[in-house]
Amino acid sequence: MEDLSLHSNQEEVADQIEDLSVADQARLIKIARYYAPRTAMQAGDLLQEAYIRSIDGTRLCPPDVLMVIFLANVIRSIACGELDKRKRREVDGGLEIGHQNFDLFAERKADIAPSQEDLLIIMEGDDAFHAWLMQQFENDDEAILILLAMFEGMKGEQLCREVGCDADQLATIRRRIKRKIETLEKSSKS
Amino acid sequence: MTKSRNSIELDHLTDQLVEDVLNMSDAEILSEFNEEGVSNEDISKLFTSHVVAAKMKIGREKLASARRMMMSQRGGSDRIRPRTPAEARRLIDRAAKEHSELTQAARNANSDQVSDRDIMQQYADLVRLGVIIDES
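ok -> C-alpha cells follow
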C-alpha cells in the first residue's frame, strides 16, 4: 500500500509555511487578493490550493528560494499559469518553460491542461477585470496613464519618465490600484 | 489559442503589484493591514485558518485515495466471496441506512421484488463502489 505519510521534504515545507512571519503571511494574503479577480477562486481558496500544491509535491521549493517567494509563485501559477502552459504544450509538446520573473522552480507533475472552453472563460474573466480596472480610474487622467504604463510592463524611473510623474505620485497611484483590487476581492465574498 | 492582449497586460500589472508587496518592509506591509483595522493577530488567524482548511482538504483526499486503493484491491469479482442472499440483503440494508445517497433500489433490498441473483449482484456492485467493505 502507498505510504500516506508526508515525505520529509514535504514535512519541512509544511513546517516552513507554519513558521512564516506575520509579515510574510500578510504578503501572501495580499498577493492572493491581487490574483483572485483573474480566477473563479477567492483569495482564501488560492492560498489553500497553493499550500496543497506545495505539500503534495506538485510544486517543489528549491532550497535557495524563500518560502514566501515560492508560495507567491505557486499562487501566480494557479491563477494565471494555465494559459501559458497550454500555449507552450501546443508549441513544444510539453516542455515547461519558466516565466522570466516568477518560475524559479521546476514542475514535478504536469497540471491537467485546460480545455479551449476553459481558456475562453479565463480570457473573458480577464477582459472583464481589465475593463473594471479602467473604469475605476476613468475620471483620473494621471491614474489612467500610470495604469496603462503598468499594463505595458513599465516600472520605476522608466514609467515616471514616460508618464511625467514623480516617484511619490507613482507610489500613491499604485497604492490606489492595489486597494481597488483588494476591495473588489473582498466584496466578491459578500 | 494565444493569450489576449488584456490578459498579457494584467500579467504585467499583477506581477508588478506582487513585486511591490515582496519588496515592502515588514513594517510597511503590516501597517497597510493595521490602517484597515486588521491587527497582526487577525492576519495570523486568517492565514492559519487557510492552512488548517488546506490540511483538511489534504486529509480528505488521502482518505479517499486510501479508500479507492482498498476498493481496487478488493474490487475484482473473484475476490468477492459469495454470501447468501439473506446476508447480502442484510448488509445492503445496513449500508443503505448509513448512506443516504444510495439509490432507492438499494434501500429496497429487503423487498421481495428483487431476486436473489440481483441482490447478490447489487452487493458485489456496492463492494466495488466502496460503499460496503467486504471483510471476507
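The first helix of chain B runs from residue 5 to 23.
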